[in-house]
Amino acid sequence: MPFSVFIAFKYLLDEKRQTLFIMSACAIGVAVMVFLYGLISGLQRSLVDRTLGSQAHIILNANKEKPRPLAEAGGDTAVMARVERGFDRPQMIADWPRRLEAIAASSGIVAAAPRLTGAALLRRGDVTRPVGVSGIDPESFTTIVPLAKSVVAGRYDLVGDEIFVGKDLADDLGVTVGDRVALQTRGGAFNFLISAVFDLGNRSVNENQVFVSLRQAQALLEAPGDINQIDTRVGEIFEAERVARRLEKETGIETISWMEQNSQLLIALRSQSSSSYLIQFFVMVAVALGIASVLVVSVVQKRAEIGILRAFGTKRSVVTRIFLIQGAVVGLLGSTVGCFIGTGLAMFFRDSAKNPDGTPLFPISYELSEYVVFIIIATLVGIIAASLPARQAARIDPAQVVH
Amino acid sequence: MSAILELRGVTKTYGTRIKTEVLHGIDLAVPRGDFLAITGQSGSGKTTLLNIMGLLDRPTNGTLAVNSVDTAGMDDEAITALRGRTLGFVFQFHHLLPALTVIENVMMPLMADKGRETPGMRDAAAALLKRVGLGERLNYKPDEISGGQRQRAAIARALAMKPAVILADEPTGNLDSVSSGEVFALMRELNKSDGTAFCVVTHAADIAKQCDRIVEIVDGRLV
Q1: Both A95 and A236 in a single domain?
Q2: What is the mean pLDDT of residues A256-272?
Q3: Is residue A62 part of a domain?
Q4: Residue A58: is its pLDDT beyond 90?
Q5: What residues have CB less than 8 Å from B149, skipping those under 6 apart?
Q6: Count of A–B CB contacts within 8 Å?
Q7: Which residues of chain A make contact with B22, given a CB cutoff of 8 A?
Protein backbone atom coordinates (compact mmCIF):
# COMPACT_ATOMS: atom_id res chain seq x y z
CA MET A 1 0.00 0.00 0.00
CA PRO A 2 1.43 3.43 -0.88
CA PHE A 3 2.63 5.42 2.12
CA SER A 4 0.16 8.28 1.49
CA VAL A 5 -2.80 5.84 1.40
CA PHE A 6 -1.51 4.10 4.54
CA ILE A 7 -1.29 7.35 6.53
CA ALA A 8 -4.61 8.65 5.15
CA PHE A 9 -6.43 5.51 6.29
CA LYS A 10 -4.67 5.59 9.67
CA TYR A 11 -5.88 9.16 10.18
CA LEU A 12 -9.43 8.34 9.13
CA LEU A 13 -9.56 5.30 11.41
CA ASP A 14 -7.90 7.08 14.32
CA GLU A 15 -10.44 9.92 14.28
CA LYS A 16 -13.46 7.62 14.03
CA ARG A 17 -16.00 10.09 15.35
CA GLN A 18 -14.76 12.87 13.10
CA THR A 19 -14.67 10.54 10.11
CA LEU A 20 -18.18 9.29 10.85
CA PHE A 21 -19.44 12.85 11.13
CA ILE A 22 -17.91 14.02 7.87
CA MET A 23 -18.98 10.84 6.07
CA SER A 24 -22.55 11.20 7.38
CA ALA A 25 -22.68 14.75 6.05
CA CYS A 26 -21.59 13.45 2.66
CA ALA A 27 -24.03 10.51 2.82
CA ILE A 28 -26.97 12.78 3.68
CA GLY A 29 -26.08 15.17 0.86
CA VAL A 30 -25.85 12.37 -1.68
CA ALA A 31 -29.03 10.77 -0.29
CA VAL A 32 -30.88 14.04 -0.97
CA MET A 33 -29.46 14.10 -4.49
CA VAL A 34 -30.39 10.48 -5.15
CA PHE A 35 -33.87 10.93 -3.71
CA LEU A 36 -34.48 14.08 -5.72
CA TYR A 37 -33.14 12.51 -8.88
CA GLY A 38 -35.23 9.35 -8.43
CA LEU A 39 -38.38 11.32 -7.78
CA ILE A 40 -37.98 13.86 -10.56
CA SER A 41 -36.79 11.41 -13.19
CA GLY A 42 -39.58 9.03 -12.15
CA LEU A 43 -42.19 11.73 -12.53
CA GLN A 44 -40.70 12.82 -15.84
CA ARG A 45 -40.53 9.28 -17.14
CA SER A 46 -44.11 8.70 -16.10
CA LEU A 47 -45.21 11.88 -17.89
CA VAL A 48 -43.30 10.96 -21.04
CA ASP A 49 -44.58 7.38 -20.94
CA ARG A 50 -48.15 8.61 -20.61
CA THR A 51 -47.62 11.02 -23.49
CA LEU A 52 -46.00 8.42 -25.71
CA GLY A 53 -48.45 5.72 -24.68
CA SER A 54 -50.92 6.89 -27.31
CA GLN A 55 -48.77 8.33 -30.07
CA ALA A 56 -45.93 7.43 -32.37
CA HIS A 57 -42.49 8.89 -31.76
CA ILE A 58 -42.27 10.19 -35.31
CA ILE A 59 -45.11 10.52 -37.81
CA LEU A 60 -44.49 10.90 -41.55
CA ASN A 61 -47.54 12.54 -43.12
CA ALA A 62 -48.34 12.68 -46.82
CA ASN A 63 -47.59 16.21 -48.00
CA LYS A 64 -50.65 18.41 -47.94
CA GLU A 65 -51.81 19.98 -51.15
CA LYS A 66 -51.01 23.69 -51.16
CA PRO A 67 -53.49 26.20 -52.69
CA ARG A 68 -52.30 27.65 -56.01
CA PRO A 69 -53.61 30.71 -57.90
CA LEU A 70 -55.34 29.89 -61.15
CA ALA A 71 -53.43 32.57 -63.05
CA GLU A 72 -49.97 33.95 -62.59
CA ALA A 73 -49.27 37.68 -62.60
CA GLY A 74 -46.63 38.89 -65.09
CA GLY A 75 -46.05 41.28 -67.97
CA ASP A 76 -49.13 43.39 -68.48
CA THR A 77 -51.30 40.99 -66.50
CA ALA A 78 -52.36 41.82 -63.00
CA VAL A 79 -54.16 39.21 -60.98
CA MET A 80 -56.62 39.91 -58.26
CA ALA A 81 -56.31 36.78 -56.27
CA ARG A 82 -58.07 35.45 -53.26
CA VAL A 83 -56.49 32.21 -52.28
CA GLU A 84 -59.11 29.86 -51.01
CA ARG A 85 -58.55 26.29 -49.92
CA GLY A 86 -60.59 23.89 -51.91
CA PHE A 87 -62.03 20.58 -50.84
CA ASP A 88 -59.42 18.81 -48.72
CA ARG A 89 -58.52 15.89 -50.90
CA PRO A 90 -56.55 13.38 -48.89
CA GLN A 91 -52.98 13.11 -50.14
CA MET A 92 -51.28 9.73 -50.13
CA ILE A 93 -47.72 8.45 -49.78
CA ALA A 94 -46.71 7.11 -53.14
CA ASP A 95 -44.87 3.79 -53.38
CA TRP A 96 -45.39 3.36 -49.64
CA PRO A 97 -44.36 -0.33 -49.18
CA ARG A 98 -40.84 0.41 -50.46
CA ARG A 99 -40.56 3.62 -48.46
CA LEU A 100 -41.91 1.96 -45.32
CA GLU A 101 -39.23 -0.70 -45.64
CA ALA A 102 -36.51 1.94 -46.12
CA ILE A 103 -37.70 3.97 -43.14
CA ALA A 104 -37.88 0.88 -40.92
CA ALA A 105 -34.25 0.12 -41.81
CA SER A 106 -33.13 3.70 -41.20
CA SER A 107 -30.74 4.33 -38.29
CA GLY A 108 -32.40 5.29 -35.02
CA ILE A 109 -35.72 3.70 -36.07
CA VAL A 110 -36.73 0.47 -34.35
CA ALA A 111 -40.19 0.00 -35.87
CA ALA A 112 -42.42 1.48 -38.56
CA ALA A 113 -46.07 0.88 -39.45
CA PRO A 114 -48.45 2.08 -42.18
CA ARG A 115 -51.61 3.96 -41.36
CA LEU A 116 -54.49 5.50 -43.28
CA THR A 117 -56.30 8.23 -41.40
CA GLY A 118 -59.49 10.09 -42.14
CA ALA A 119 -62.64 11.50 -40.62
CA ALA A 120 -66.03 9.83 -40.25
CA LEU A 121 -69.24 9.91 -38.28
CA LEU A 122 -69.85 7.01 -35.95
CA ARG A 123 -73.48 6.12 -35.56
CA ARG A 124 -75.15 3.95 -33.01
CA GLY A 125 -78.92 4.13 -33.17
CA ASP A 126 -79.85 7.79 -33.16
CA VAL A 127 -76.57 8.93 -31.66
CA THR A 128 -73.81 10.24 -33.94
CA ARG A 129 -70.26 11.17 -33.00
CA PRO A 130 -67.49 12.58 -35.20
CA VAL A 131 -64.43 10.33 -34.99
CA GLY A 132 -61.00 9.92 -36.49
CA VAL A 133 -60.64 6.63 -38.34
CA SER A 134 -57.30 4.90 -38.45
CA GLY A 135 -56.70 2.01 -40.77
CA ILE A 136 -53.91 -0.08 -39.32
CA ASP A 137 -52.11 -3.36 -39.54
CA PRO A 138 -52.70 -4.50 -35.92
CA GLU A 139 -49.50 -6.50 -35.70
CA SER A 140 -47.09 -3.73 -36.76
CA PHE A 141 -49.12 -0.89 -35.23
CA THR A 142 -48.86 -2.28 -31.72
CA THR A 143 -45.05 -2.10 -31.95
CA ILE A 144 -45.48 1.68 -32.31
CA VAL A 145 -48.37 2.38 -29.93
CA PRO A 146 -49.04 -0.30 -27.30
CA LEU A 147 -52.64 -0.81 -28.44
CA ALA A 148 -52.67 -4.58 -27.81
CA LYS A 149 -51.75 -4.03 -24.17
CA SER A 150 -54.40 -1.34 -23.89
CA VAL A 151 -57.30 -3.61 -24.77
CA VAL A 152 -59.64 -3.66 -21.77
CA ALA A 153 -62.33 -5.82 -23.36
CA GLY A 154 -62.40 -8.17 -26.36
CA ARG A 155 -59.45 -9.36 -28.40
CA TYR A 156 -56.73 -7.51 -30.31
CA ASP A 157 -57.61 -8.60 -33.81
CA LEU A 158 -59.20 -6.93 -36.81
CA VAL A 159 -60.78 -9.47 -39.10
CA GLY A 160 -63.16 -8.32 -41.82
CA ASP A 161 -65.48 -5.58 -40.60
CA GLU A 162 -64.20 -5.47 -37.06
CA ILE A 163 -63.41 -2.23 -35.22
CA PHE A 164 -61.68 -1.11 -32.02
CA VAL A 165 -63.30 1.71 -30.07
CA GLY A 166 -61.99 3.68 -27.12
CA LYS A 167 -63.28 3.14 -23.62
CA ASP A 168 -64.75 6.63 -23.30
CA LEU A 169 -66.47 6.49 -26.69
CA ALA A 170 -67.89 3.06 -25.83
CA ASP A 171 -69.22 4.38 -22.53
CA ASP A 172 -70.68 7.44 -24.26
CA LEU A 173 -72.49 5.36 -26.86
CA GLY A 174 -73.33 2.56 -24.45
CA VAL A 175 -71.68 -0.08 -26.63
CA THR A 176 -69.34 -2.91 -25.88
CA VAL A 177 -67.59 -5.84 -27.55
CA GLY A 178 -69.92 -7.66 -29.93
CA ASP A 179 -72.11 -4.63 -30.64
CA ARG A 180 -72.42 -3.13 -34.08
CA VAL A 181 -71.80 0.50 -35.05
CA ALA A 182 -71.85 2.31 -38.40
CA LEU A 183 -69.20 4.58 -39.87
CA GLN A 184 -70.40 7.21 -42.28
CA THR A 185 -68.05 8.85 -44.79
CA ARG A 186 -68.46 10.56 -48.14
CA GLY A 187 -68.22 7.14 -49.66
CA GLY A 188 -71.21 5.81 -47.76
CA ALA A 189 -72.04 4.03 -44.53
CA PHE A 190 -70.32 0.83 -43.39
CA ASN A 191 -71.29 -1.42 -40.51
CA PHE A 192 -68.62 -2.66 -38.09
CA LEU A 193 -68.55 -5.17 -35.29
CA ILE A 194 -66.72 -4.05 -32.11
CA SER A 195 -63.99 -6.61 -31.45
CA ALA A 196 -62.13 -4.70 -28.73
CA VAL A 197 -62.46 -1.73 -26.40
CA PHE A 198 -59.16 -0.02 -25.62
CA ASP A 199 -57.90 2.42 -23.03
CA LEU A 200 -54.73 4.25 -24.09
CA GLY A 201 -54.78 6.43 -20.97
CA ASN A 202 -55.60 9.50 -23.06
CA ARG A 203 -59.21 10.66 -22.87
CA SER A 204 -59.06 12.50 -26.17
CA VAL A 205 -57.88 9.39 -28.04
CA ASN A 206 -60.29 7.14 -26.14
CA GLU A 207 -63.21 9.41 -27.11
CA ASN A 208 -62.36 10.33 -30.68
CA GLN A 209 -60.36 7.55 -32.30
CA VAL A 210 -61.44 4.26 -33.80
CA PHE A 211 -59.26 1.63 -35.47
CA VAL A 212 -60.21 -0.60 -38.38
CA SER A 213 -58.13 -2.80 -40.63
CA LEU A 214 -56.08 -1.02 -43.27
CA ARG A 215 -58.09 -2.67 -46.03
CA GLN A 216 -61.41 -1.57 -44.52
CA ALA A 217 -60.13 1.99 -44.07
CA GLN A 218 -58.98 2.09 -47.69
CA ALA A 219 -62.49 1.13 -48.78
CA LEU A 220 -64.14 3.51 -46.35
CA LEU A 221 -61.95 6.49 -47.27
CA GLU A 222 -61.92 5.68 -50.98
CA ALA A 223 -58.17 5.19 -51.10
CA PRO A 224 -57.68 1.67 -52.38
CA GLY A 225 -54.14 0.41 -51.70
CA ASP A 226 -53.02 3.73 -50.22
CA ILE A 227 -51.84 5.11 -46.92
CA ASN A 228 -51.27 8.70 -45.84
CA GLN A 229 -49.14 8.19 -42.77
CA ILE A 230 -46.16 6.17 -41.56
CA ASP A 231 -45.76 5.85 -37.80
CA THR A 232 -42.36 5.07 -36.35
CA ARG A 233 -40.76 4.26 -33.05
CA VAL A 234 -37.20 5.36 -32.24
CA GLY A 235 -34.64 3.68 -29.99
CA GLU A 236 -33.82 6.80 -28.02
CA ILE A 237 -36.91 8.91 -27.41
CA PHE A 238 -35.05 12.20 -26.89
CA GLU A 239 -33.33 11.71 -30.26
CA ALA A 240 -36.72 11.72 -32.03
CA GLU A 241 -36.54 15.33 -33.24
CA ARG A 242 -33.09 14.87 -34.74
CA VAL A 243 -34.12 11.61 -36.43
CA ALA A 244 -37.32 13.27 -37.70
CA ARG A 245 -35.41 16.06 -39.38
CA ARG A 246 -33.10 13.57 -41.03
CA LEU A 247 -36.00 11.43 -42.26
CA GLU A 248 -37.74 14.47 -43.69
CA LYS A 249 -34.61 15.37 -45.59
CA GLU A 250 -34.11 11.80 -46.83
CA THR A 251 -37.72 11.04 -47.79
CA GLY A 252 -39.14 14.45 -48.67
CA ILE A 253 -42.20 13.55 -46.59
CA GLU A 254 -43.36 15.93 -43.86
CA THR A 255 -42.40 14.56 -40.47
CA ILE A 256 -43.32 15.54 -36.98
CA SER A 257 -41.76 14.16 -33.84
CA TRP A 258 -43.41 13.70 -30.47
CA MET A 259 -41.03 16.36 -29.15
CA GLU A 260 -42.37 18.92 -31.60
CA GLN A 261 -45.94 17.94 -30.82
CA ASN A 262 -45.32 18.27 -27.08
CA SER A 263 -42.90 21.20 -26.98
CA GLN A 264 -44.59 22.74 -23.94
CA LEU A 265 -44.21 19.49 -22.04
CA LEU A 266 -40.53 19.38 -22.91
CA ILE A 267 -40.01 22.97 -21.75
CA ALA A 268 -41.66 22.06 -18.45
CA LEU A 269 -39.48 18.96 -18.11
CA ARG A 270 -36.34 20.97 -18.81
CA SER A 271 -37.31 23.60 -16.24
CA GLN A 272 -37.95 20.85 -13.72
CA SER A 273 -34.56 19.27 -14.46
CA SER A 274 -32.81 22.64 -14.18
CA SER A 275 -34.35 23.24 -10.75
CA SER A 276 -33.31 19.76 -9.70
CA TYR A 277 -29.73 20.28 -10.90
CA LEU A 278 -29.58 23.62 -9.09
CA ILE A 279 -30.71 22.04 -5.82
CA GLN A 280 -28.23 19.18 -6.31
CA PHE A 281 -25.45 21.68 -7.00
CA PHE A 282 -26.09 23.57 -3.78
CA VAL A 283 -26.34 20.34 -1.81
CA MET A 284 -22.92 19.36 -3.17
CA VAL A 285 -21.52 22.79 -2.29
CA ALA A 286 -22.77 22.27 1.27
CA VAL A 287 -21.18 18.81 1.35
CA ALA A 288 -17.90 20.21 0.02
CA LEU A 289 -17.86 22.94 2.67
CA GLY A 290 -18.56 20.32 5.34
CA ILE A 291 -15.68 18.11 4.21
CA ALA A 292 -13.34 21.08 3.81
CA SER A 293 -14.10 22.54 7.24
CA VAL A 294 -13.57 19.23 9.04
CA LEU A 295 -10.29 18.62 7.20
CA VAL A 296 -9.11 22.17 7.88
CA VAL A 297 -9.67 21.54 11.59
CA SER A 298 -7.87 18.20 11.20
CA VAL A 299 -4.85 19.92 9.63
CA VAL A 300 -4.71 22.42 12.50
CA GLN A 301 -4.95 19.57 15.03
CA LYS A 302 -2.24 17.59 13.27
CA ARG A 303 0.27 20.36 12.64
CA ALA A 304 2.92 18.76 14.81
CA GLU A 305 2.33 15.30 13.27
CA ILE A 306 2.62 16.74 9.77
CA GLY A 307 5.81 18.49 10.88
CA ILE A 308 7.18 15.13 12.07
CA LEU A 309 6.26 13.48 8.76
CA ARG A 310 8.08 16.26 6.93
CA ALA A 311 11.11 16.12 9.29
CA PHE A 312 11.48 12.40 8.59
CA GLY A 313 11.61 12.81 4.84
CA THR A 314 7.97 12.97 3.72
CA LYS A 315 7.71 15.19 0.65
CA ARG A 316 5.22 18.03 0.44
CA SER A 317 3.46 16.27 -2.45
CA VAL A 318 2.95 13.18 -0.27
CA VAL A 319 1.47 15.31 2.53
CA THR A 320 -0.89 16.85 -0.04
CA ARG A 321 -1.89 13.37 -1.22
CA ILE A 322 -2.61 12.19 2.33
CA PHE A 323 -5.36 14.79 2.69
CA LEU A 324 -6.66 14.46 -0.87
CA ILE A 325 -7.03 10.72 -0.31
CA GLN A 326 -8.96 11.39 2.89
CA GLY A 327 -11.32 13.65 0.95
CA ALA A 328 -11.72 11.05 -1.80
CA VAL A 329 -12.38 8.21 0.66
CA VAL A 330 -14.95 10.27 2.55
CA GLY A 331 -16.64 11.19 -0.76
CA LEU A 332 -16.55 7.61 -2.06
CA LEU A 333 -17.79 5.83 1.06
CA GLY A 334 -20.18 8.63 2.06
CA SER A 335 -21.78 8.71 -1.37
CA THR A 336 -22.10 4.92 -1.51
CA VAL A 337 -23.97 4.95 1.79
CA GLY A 338 -25.92 8.00 0.57
CA CYS A 339 -27.06 6.09 -2.53
CA PHE A 340 -28.55 3.37 -0.34
CA ILE A 341 -30.23 5.89 1.99
CA GLY A 342 -31.61 7.96 -0.91
CA THR A 343 -32.95 4.89 -2.70
CA GLY A 344 -34.51 3.58 0.53
CA LEU A 345 -36.19 6.92 1.14
CA ALA A 346 -37.49 7.07 -2.43
CA MET A 347 -38.79 3.49 -2.20
CA PHE A 348 -40.57 4.39 1.03
CA PHE A 349 -42.19 7.38 -0.66
CA ARG A 350 -43.16 5.27 -3.67
CA ASP A 351 -44.78 2.59 -1.55
CA SER A 352 -46.48 4.88 0.94
CA ALA A 353 -48.61 6.98 -1.44
CA LYS A 354 -50.70 5.43 -4.21
CA ASN A 355 -53.12 6.67 -6.85
CA PRO A 356 -56.68 5.27 -6.83
CA ASP A 357 -55.65 2.83 -9.63
CA GLY A 358 -52.86 1.43 -7.42
CA THR A 359 -49.98 3.08 -9.29
CA PRO A 360 -47.51 5.04 -7.14
CA LEU A 361 -48.30 8.71 -6.58
CA PHE A 362 -44.54 9.31 -6.66
CA PRO A 363 -43.11 7.00 -9.30
CA ILE A 364 -39.34 6.69 -8.97
CA SER A 365 -36.80 5.82 -11.58
CA TYR A 366 -33.15 4.83 -11.21
CA GLU A 367 -30.41 3.59 -13.43
CA LEU A 368 -27.17 2.02 -12.26
CA SER A 369 -25.17 4.48 -14.35
CA GLU A 370 -26.70 7.35 -12.36
CA TYR A 371 -25.43 5.87 -9.11
CA VAL A 372 -21.97 5.65 -10.65
CA VAL A 373 -22.24 9.30 -11.69
CA PHE A 374 -23.31 10.37 -8.18
CA ILE A 375 -20.44 8.44 -6.59
CA ILE A 376 -17.92 9.90 -9.04
CA ILE A 377 -19.26 13.43 -8.46
CA ALA A 378 -19.15 13.03 -4.66
CA THR A 379 -15.63 11.58 -4.80
CA LEU A 380 -14.45 14.49 -6.95
CA VAL A 381 -16.18 16.93 -4.61
CA GLY A 382 -14.37 15.25 -1.71
CA ILE A 383 -11.04 15.67 -3.48
CA ILE A 384 -11.76 19.30 -4.40
CA ALA A 385 -12.94 20.04 -0.86
CA ALA A 386 -9.76 18.47 0.53
CA SER A 387 -7.48 20.43 -1.77
CA LEU A 388 -7.47 23.57 0.37
CA PRO A 389 -6.62 21.78 3.65
CA ALA A 390 -4.14 19.60 1.73
CA ARG A 391 -2.29 22.65 0.44
CA GLN A 392 -2.42 24.13 3.93
CA ALA A 393 -0.88 20.90 5.31
CA ALA A 394 1.84 20.80 2.67
CA ARG A 395 2.90 24.34 3.53
CA ILE A 396 3.51 23.47 7.19
CA ASP A 397 7.10 24.23 8.14
CA PRO A 398 8.42 21.49 10.43
CA ALA A 399 10.79 23.96 12.13
CA GLN A 400 7.78 25.99 13.29
CA VAL A 401 5.70 23.16 14.72
CA VAL A 402 8.07 20.52 16.11
CA HIS A 403 9.85 21.21 19.39
CA MET B 1 37.97 12.69 10.66
CA SER B 2 35.62 14.04 7.97
CA ALA B 3 32.72 16.17 9.10
CA ILE B 4 29.19 15.03 8.36
CA LEU B 5 27.79 18.45 9.14
CA GLU B 6 29.79 21.58 8.65
CA LEU B 7 28.50 25.07 9.31
CA ARG B 8 30.52 28.05 8.16
CA GLY B 9 29.61 31.62 9.07
CA VAL B 10 25.95 30.71 9.57
CA THR B 11 23.64 33.54 10.51
CA LYS B 12 19.89 33.48 10.88
CA THR B 13 17.70 36.54 10.78
CA TYR B 14 13.94 36.57 11.39
CA GLY B 15 11.50 39.27 10.34
CA THR B 16 11.31 41.42 7.25
CA ARG B 17 10.52 44.92 8.54
CA ILE B 18 12.11 44.64 11.95
CA LYS B 19 15.00 42.20 11.57
CA THR B 20 16.25 40.14 14.47
CA GLU B 21 19.50 38.24 14.04
CA VAL B 22 19.31 35.10 16.15
CA LEU B 23 22.56 33.41 15.09
CA HIS B 24 25.76 35.28 14.35
CA GLY B 25 28.49 33.66 12.26
CA ILE B 26 28.36 30.12 13.59
CA ASP B 27 31.21 27.82 12.61
CA LEU B 28 30.72 24.27 13.72
CA ALA B 29 31.69 20.83 12.41
CA VAL B 30 30.19 17.51 13.50
CA PRO B 31 32.48 14.59 12.63
CA ARG B 32 31.39 10.95 12.40
CA GLY B 33 30.86 9.27 15.76
CA ASP B 34 30.84 12.61 17.59
CA PHE B 35 28.75 13.03 20.75
CA LEU B 36 28.26 16.75 21.03
CA ALA B 37 26.36 18.70 23.66
CA ILE B 38 25.01 22.14 22.74
CA THR B 39 24.16 24.10 25.83
CA GLY B 40 22.91 27.56 26.46
CA GLN B 41 20.20 29.55 28.13
CA SER B 42 16.62 29.79 26.85
CA GLY B 43 16.46 32.11 23.85
CA SER B 44 20.19 31.81 23.14
CA GLY B 45 19.49 30.23 19.68
CA LYS B 46 20.05 26.53 20.45
CA THR B 47 16.88 25.32 18.75
CA THR B 48 17.40 27.61 15.75
CA LEU B 49 20.90 26.18 15.36
CA LEU B 50 19.56 22.63 15.64
CA ASN B 51 16.85 23.37 13.03
CA ILE B 52 19.49 24.64 10.61
CA MET B 53 21.77 21.67 11.30
CA GLY B 54 18.74 19.38 10.77
CA LEU B 55 17.85 20.98 7.39
CA LEU B 56 14.50 22.01 8.86
CA ASP B 57 15.40 25.65 8.36
CA ARG B 58 17.83 27.48 6.08
CA PRO B 59 20.54 29.89 7.15
CA THR B 60 20.21 33.54 6.14
CA ASN B 61 23.92 33.70 5.40
CA GLY B 62 26.77 31.21 5.54
CA THR B 63 26.87 27.62 4.39
CA LEU B 64 25.83 24.25 5.64
CA ALA B 65 27.48 21.22 4.07
CA VAL B 66 26.23 17.67 4.60
CA ASN B 67 28.89 15.09 3.81
CA SER B 68 30.88 17.93 2.19
CA VAL B 69 27.99 18.83 -0.15
CA ASP B 70 26.77 22.40 0.13
CA THR B 71 22.99 22.48 0.66
CA ALA B 72 22.50 26.11 -0.38
CA GLY B 73 21.34 25.44 -3.94
CA MET B 74 19.13 22.46 -3.19
CA ASP B 75 15.37 22.68 -3.69
CA ASP B 76 12.83 21.63 -1.09
CA GLU B 77 12.45 18.12 -2.50
CA ALA B 78 16.20 17.45 -2.47
CA ILE B 79 16.57 18.88 1.04
CA THR B 80 13.68 16.67 2.24
CA ALA B 81 15.27 13.55 0.73
CA LEU B 82 18.72 14.43 2.14
CA ARG B 83 17.25 15.11 5.57
CA GLY B 84 15.30 11.83 5.54
CA ARG B 85 18.34 9.77 4.59
CA THR B 86 21.11 11.47 6.56
CA LEU B 87 19.57 12.84 9.71
CA GLY B 88 17.46 11.55 12.56
CA PHE B 89 15.56 13.56 15.14
CA VAL B 90 14.63 13.12 18.76
CA PHE B 91 12.59 15.87 20.35
CA GLN B 92 11.81 16.85 23.91
CA PHE B 93 8.28 15.62 23.37
CA HIS B 94 8.36 12.21 21.67
CA HIS B 95 6.07 13.26 18.77
CA LEU B 96 5.17 9.70 17.89
CA LEU B 97 2.16 9.67 15.57
CA PRO B 98 -0.75 8.63 17.80
CA ALA B 99 -2.65 6.95 14.95
CA LEU B 100 0.22 4.52 14.33
CA THR B 101 1.46 1.66 16.49
CA VAL B 102 4.97 1.77 17.90
CA ILE B 103 6.36 -0.41 15.09
CA GLU B 104 4.52 1.62 12.42
CA ASN B 105 6.05 4.79 13.89
CA VAL B 106 9.50 3.28 13.48
CA MET B 107 8.67 2.13 9.94
CA MET B 108 7.37 5.60 9.02
CA PRO B 109 10.71 7.13 7.84
CA LEU B 110 11.45 3.97 5.82
CA MET B 111 8.03 4.03 4.18
CA ALA B 112 8.33 7.77 3.47
CA ASP B 113 11.65 7.07 1.74
CA LYS B 114 10.49 4.08 -0.33
CA GLY B 115 6.92 5.29 -0.86
CA ARG B 116 5.42 2.08 0.55
CA GLU B 117 6.15 -0.82 2.89
CA THR B 118 8.74 -3.12 1.35
CA PRO B 119 9.77 -6.65 2.38
CA GLY B 120 12.03 -6.69 5.42
CA MET B 121 10.99 -3.23 6.58
CA ARG B 122 8.83 -4.52 9.42
CA ASP B 123 11.55 -6.92 10.59
CA ALA B 124 14.14 -4.12 10.59
CA ALA B 125 11.84 -1.91 12.66
CA ALA B 126 11.13 -4.77 15.08
CA ALA B 127 14.87 -5.40 15.50
CA LEU B 128 15.43 -1.71 16.32
CA LEU B 129 12.64 -1.72 18.87
CA LYS B 130 14.05 -4.88 20.42
CA ARG B 131 17.38 -3.13 20.66
CA VAL B 132 15.89 -0.19 22.57
CA GLY B 133 14.04 -2.59 24.87
CA LEU B 134 10.59 -2.36 23.29
CA GLY B 135 10.48 -5.80 21.66
CA GLU B 136 7.33 -6.60 23.58
CA ARG B 137 5.53 -3.35 22.72
CA LEU B 138 5.58 -3.45 18.91
CA ASN B 139 1.84 -3.20 18.38
CA TYR B 140 1.05 -0.85 21.23
CA LYS B 141 -0.18 2.64 20.51
CA PRO B 142 2.02 5.48 21.88
CA ASP B 143 -0.57 6.33 24.53
CA GLU B 144 -0.38 2.76 25.85
CA ILE B 145 3.30 2.94 26.89
CA SER B 146 5.22 5.03 29.45
CA GLY B 147 7.01 8.34 28.79
CA GLY B 148 10.46 6.72 28.86
CA GLN B 149 9.31 3.97 26.48
CA ARG B 150 7.89 6.57 24.08
CA GLN B 151 11.21 8.41 24.02
CA ARG B 152 13.02 5.11 23.36
CA ALA B 153 10.57 4.44 20.54
CA ALA B 154 11.36 7.94 19.21
CA ILE B 155 15.07 7.04 19.27
CA ALA B 156 14.34 3.83 17.39
CA ARG B 157 12.43 5.90 14.81
CA ALA B 158 15.39 8.29 14.52
CA LEU B 159 17.65 5.28 13.88
CA ALA B 160 15.38 3.68 11.27
CA MET B 161 17.16 5.19 8.26
CA LYS B 162 20.60 4.48 9.77
CA PRO B 163 21.39 8.21 9.81
CA ALA B 164 24.89 9.56 10.18
CA VAL B 165 23.76 12.10 12.77
CA ILE B 166 20.91 12.21 15.27
CA LEU B 167 19.88 15.65 16.40
CA ALA B 168 18.28 15.53 19.83
CA ASP B 169 16.55 18.59 21.26
CA GLU B 170 16.28 18.18 25.05
CA PRO B 171 15.64 14.45 24.64
CA THR B 172 15.43 13.89 28.39
CA GLY B 173 13.75 17.18 29.24
CA ASN B 174 10.34 15.62 29.65
CA LEU B 175 11.39 12.53 31.59
CA ASP B 176 11.88 11.64 35.24
CA SER B 177 15.48 11.10 36.42
CA VAL B 178 15.38 7.30 36.03
CA SER B 179 13.95 7.38 32.49
CA SER B 180 16.25 10.28 31.67
CA GLY B 181 19.30 8.23 32.67
CA GLU B 182 18.08 5.21 30.70
CA VAL B 183 17.45 7.24 27.54
CA PHE B 184 20.84 8.96 27.70
CA ALA B 185 22.58 5.64 28.32
CA LEU B 186 20.82 4.22 25.27
CA MET B 187 22.00 7.10 23.07
CA ARG B 188 25.55 6.69 24.37
CA GLU B 189 25.46 2.98 23.65
CA LEU B 190 24.18 3.52 20.11
CA ASN B 191 26.90 6.11 19.56
CA LYS B 192 29.57 3.69 20.66
CA SER B 193 28.23 0.59 18.91
CA ASP B 194 27.07 2.08 15.58
CA GLY B 195 29.22 5.18 15.36
CA THR B 196 26.13 7.34 14.92
CA ALA B 197 26.94 10.94 15.76
CA PHE B 198 24.66 12.69 18.28
CA CYS B 199 24.13 16.43 18.72
CA VAL B 200 22.27 16.89 21.97
CA VAL B 201 20.79 20.21 22.92
CA THR B 202 20.38 20.23 26.67
CA HIS B 203 19.96 22.43 29.69
CA ALA B 204 21.08 19.70 32.03
CA ALA B 205 24.69 20.14 33.06
CA ASP B 206 25.00 16.50 34.20
CA ILE B 207 23.89 15.28 30.76
CA ALA B 208 26.22 17.69 28.95
CA LYS B 209 29.15 16.53 31.07
CA GLN B 210 28.74 12.97 29.85
CA CYS B 211 29.10 14.04 26.19
CA ASP B 212 32.43 13.99 24.30
CA ARG B 213 32.31 17.70 23.53
CA ILE B 214 30.36 20.65 24.80
CA VAL B 215 29.72 23.85 22.88
CA GLU B 216 27.89 26.71 24.54
CA ILE B 217 25.81 29.22 22.68
CA VAL B 218 25.36 32.65 24.15
CA ASP B 219 23.23 35.27 22.40
CA GLY B 220 23.55 33.44 19.10
CA ARG B 221 27.33 33.00 19.25
CA LEU B 222 29.35 29.88 20.04
CA VAL B 223 31.70 30.41 22.93
Answers
A1: yes
A2: 88
A3: no
A4: yes
A5: B133, B134, B137
A6: 81
A7: none
